[in-house]
User: What shape does this take?
Amino acid sequence: MACKHVLLIGAGALGSGNAEALARAGVGQISIVDRDYVELSNLNRQLLYSENDAELRMPKAIAAHKRLREINSDVTVHPHVLDATPFELKKLAENIDLIIDATDNFETRLAINDISQMYRIPWIYGACAGSYGISFTFLPGATPCLSCLLDSVPLSGATCDAAGIISPAVQMVVAHQSVEALKLLTGNRSALRSTLLTFDLWRNQHFEMDVTVSKKADCPSCGAHASYPYLSREYQTKTAVLCGRNTVQLRPAKRMERNLDELARHLSALDGNVECNPFLVSFSEKDHRMVFFKDGRVLVHGTSDIAEAKSLYHRLLG
Ligand SMILES: [Zn+2]
Assistant: This one.
């Protein structure tokens, strides 16, 4: 496995567990993509991080890199502090053996699904909510794809749950994802589970569903005339309300590099509190806090209203 390269999308709860399992198993390279930074409220289930990371507001990809290097220095970790947009995913998918989904939203998963089909890279879906979990291993050319399943399988149980996630449910999904990863990376395809797995640890339930019949010949993502609709420009949203966070992410229309020093100077002149690290600038005022990243993104905390987030942003930066 030392020659294998895994692309891990998301470094939250599922991402922490998967990254640690892969690093300890000795996977050669792990590319980690995450758009967020560490906060105290993450620490009950995001096992790679510490209070110090939260204090410093370290981007999760960077904090994960540091921790994984301490765990196994033979593993090469490539941290990416950015949103997993189709544009970024296309670049990141080069020479990747496997993609692991540790995101919290279907927009990104559908983009991962199209990337997987386009480049023929297997991917392992995983999601959690409360005490519930779900996982499936997608193999291009062999299994149905996520787009095929959306119409026939109730996947909506795994939506963002503000009531919170219990850590054992996370660890259970991680166990299922990482064992499938080990099978794939060691060439043991015949050992793969092949079913769609769901469980609820609190209710003592465990189901496995054969979804073979869900594969659609005319699927826009995996059919004979695939058009990969979720990679198109129209599909990419510029704003997103973050899962259970009372936070809106604003993304610039064009990729840009923000000069954080210049921004910090500008914000220091305003009525609010400015804090910086090499990866982001945080600005707090009354009920809101805004966090600006190098890639141009802004997280607006204290609202789930996109219009309000935009107006707060424009009031600061015009
Ligand atoms: Zn399909």
Notes: The first strand starts at residue 5 and ends at 9. The chain has a mean pLDDT of 92. The chain has two domains: 5-234, 237-317.
